[in-house]
Amino acid sequence: MRKPFVAGNWKMNKTGEESRLLVAELLPELQKISGVDCAVCPPFPYLVSLSNMLAGSGIGLGAQNMHWEASGAYTGEVAPKMVAEFCQYVILGHSERRAYFGETDEMINKKVKAALANGITPIMCVGETLAENEAGRTAEVVSRQTRLGLEGIPAGEAQKVVIAYEPVWAIGTGRAATSEQAQAVHANVVRTTLKELLGEAAAQAIRIQYGGSVNAKNAAELFAMPDIDGALVGGASLKAPDFVAIVQAAAARG
Ligand code: PGA
Is the whole model's pTM more than 0.90, yes or no? Predict the structure, then answer.
């Protein structure tokens, strides 16, 4: 059985002080919950202090991006080893990185490989835009992103990857996919593509999170679906009670 995994994507929010307050609020509550993996993904400057706060807590820490090269003349970039020093996870290929920073499937594939080579669990994001959705291209787009993102990675390694299906039209809009819509893409597109690519065992082992306007109210319904193995949470991860409620809903999945 796949253990549910809930991660908070803080995006470009919070001051250093606010980030420590949020983690201080989350820690005792999240530690009471068992049967679910959870992590927070704050901006880079807060990773060091938050990794100290989270040490030994069982709550994971993730970065929101990284470069694929080991070192060198890449002004403004952060290398996999630097992330690995503080984090267990890294979000890769988020739709905001694809849309605003020109990330391609090829770049994301290099990042996924670099994360795995450095012992970091990648949370690889896939998802169609509103225009692609309305044009009936969801399966084609999500399947392509999944295949190209994992290209050249053997099944034994690829099964460590977490996939986040995040329809772009659902991100930050308050309009989440219905649990049936999300389940259909998770099972019929993502997991089916994983099966073709990696075989049955790896496809069944890989966790597929849903992301896009997940909140304390809709989480339980989403997690009731057999192929929704957790969530990548944006806005609702910035408030401790909301994030805790979502993690509790994932634990209740059984
Ligand atoms: P949201 O963001 O929960 O605010 O919609 C999700 C994400 O972009 O990861």
Answer: yes
